[in-house]
Amino acid sequence: MPGPGGILLLLVLAAPLAAAWRPWPPRDASGAIDPGFGASKKFEGSSDFVKLEYHMGPVLAADITVHPIWYGPWPAEQKRTIRAFLRSLTPPSSEKVPSPSVADWWRTVQLYTDQTTANVSATVALGQEKSDARMSRGASLSRMDIQSVVRDAVTARTRPLPVDSGGVYLVLTSTEVLVENFCGQVCGFHYFTFPSVVGYTLPYAWVGNSARRCPEVCAYPFAIPAYVPNRRPEAPPNGDVGVDGMVSVIAHELAEMATNPLANAWYAGGDPSFPTEIADLCEGIYGTGGGGAYTGQLLTDGRSGSSYNVNGVGGRRFLVQWVWDPYRSYCSGPNALDQH
Length: 340
Description:
By secondary structure, this protein is α/β, with parallel strands linked by helices. The chain is built from seven helices and 17 strands.
């Protein structure tokens, strides 16, 4: 058995590999599109081989506060779009958001419980924010650098982000920033910070804007890879390929942070360093019939022609991937045809 130093080294090495959103659509060894779990058109993503298990760790049962950390120069409109999505997870009671809504989508995430039978919180709030437009740690970041960005935000001399029990930290990198393995292997990931780096154990996620580097990889289906034949890109609902693509990755990471914040709660597979989590099981599925390179049936804005599957606050619309329903054992979303 390794000593404490060896255990820490193992965690440091394993952490950057854990809990990552992988590029879509997938290809098999021959380069052909892999139909994946979507082969069943009745139960999108359903599979007898999926063994999603609970590993006795916590879920985010307390009210959740999302603290965005804007790394790099971010235009105001792009920030507004992402803030609107985060506010849509638990919209104010004064605002009537039509179904299918972002809040409806979050209700599937809420189905997950911890060992005390406490569910993932129904309350997700937009918290305080921090900006680092000058990219104080440079324009090229390793995965471990992301933890240092979180540390900078919570230990800043002026207006540091609060450290609270329900806080999660969302590092959002602009198009100018390159993050290790971005585009080639991941479009986003989540994990938890190490006290040796940050001073606290905090759930965090990173998502990058792929508009300049690989929109066909990380902003699919708003941009289409060359290897997908006869497929036109969908029009983004907020008019921004990179940011509309980010919204779905943000949704993916938030769902997995809520259900597996410390890499010891809900996931499939035997290795917590390489888990298959509730959104991984449904990558690329946005509507009924989805699977392989097909998104599934989407909704279309009559005026703009853009594609979406959920409504948000302020009349906003978004396209977010489905997540795994633990009771039905298949991918589920509020725009499913059998829910209307």
